[in-house]
Automatic annotation (TrEMBL):
Protein name: 3'-5' exonuclease
All residue ranges annotated as the Exonuclease domain in the record: 10-181
GO molecular function, one term: exonuclease activity
Keyword list, A-Z: Exonuclease, Hydrolase, Nuclease
Lineage: Bacteria, Bacillati, Actinomycetota, Actinomycetes, Micromonosporales
Length: 210
């Protein structure tokens, strides 16, 4: 991609809600959201979000949002039904997330045919700065995005897939501006700072901020 500026690259923000890592290889996906970025800004008009029927009862654990109940999920489509739409959004694009490895490992376990161009992680960019709390919700507050999130995702809430994916999509340009205040970076520069190797790939060279 050479000298192409970062916002000229096709990027989509992704977030999942799952049944929990304690389920290991049987962890179920309960909700998914994907938000494309157009010229570096969230394109909410083309966002996609869906509950997912896990095909089995899910215990109500503390980290599972109250809205994700068995009764609600039973009415949702199975992951296989929305897989074509996810492929349309993800294949060939860079997938962005906050601690993206967690979401991508779960999604690729269920849908191994997805083929993104690569992975980007806003958490890596946040670690290069002096934020005391790098959680997504704390960064939204620190970067004064709370009102933006009320307007963009007021019907959702933190720790739901749509809210988290929208927040990540807004967070990326804010972090980039803080790290490169004088001029926008090329995509290759961003990739060195925020890129994460796909699980099937060998570890990449050390990042820009290592």
């Amino acid at each position: 991609m050479g000298s192409q500026l970062w916002h000229g690259t096709e990027i989509v923000a992704l977030d999942l809600e799952g049944s929990g890592a304690q389920d290991r290889h049987t962890e179920a996906i309960l909700e998914v959201a994907v938000v494309p970025l157009t010229h570096g800004q969230p394109d909410l008009g083309h966002a996609f979000t869906s509950l997912v029927n896990p095909g089995r009862p899910i215990p109500q654990r503390p980290w599972i949002s109250p809205g994700l109940t068995d009764a609600v999920l039973a009415e949702a489509p199975a992951l296989e039904q929305i897989a074509p739409r996810l492929a349309e959004l993800v294949d060939g694009r860079w997938v962005l997330g906050h601690n993206i490895n967690v979401d991508w490992r779960l999604l690729s376990r269920h849908l191994p045919a997805l083929r993104p161009a690569g992975l980007l992680d806003t958490l890596l960019l946040a670690r290069a700065m002096s934020f005391p709390d790098r959680s997504l919700s704390a960064l939204v507050d620190n970067l004064r995005l709370r009102e933006t999130m009320r307007a963009a995702a007021g019907g959702s809430q933190p720790h739901r897939a749509y809210w988290d994916s929208v927040a990540t999509a807004y967070l990326l340009p804010k972090l980039i501006y803080r790290l490169w205040p004088n001029r926008p970076p090329t995509f290759d520069t961003l990739r060195l700072g925020a890129g994460v190797a796909l699980p099937t790939e060998p570890a990449d060279q050390p990042g820009l901020f290592d």
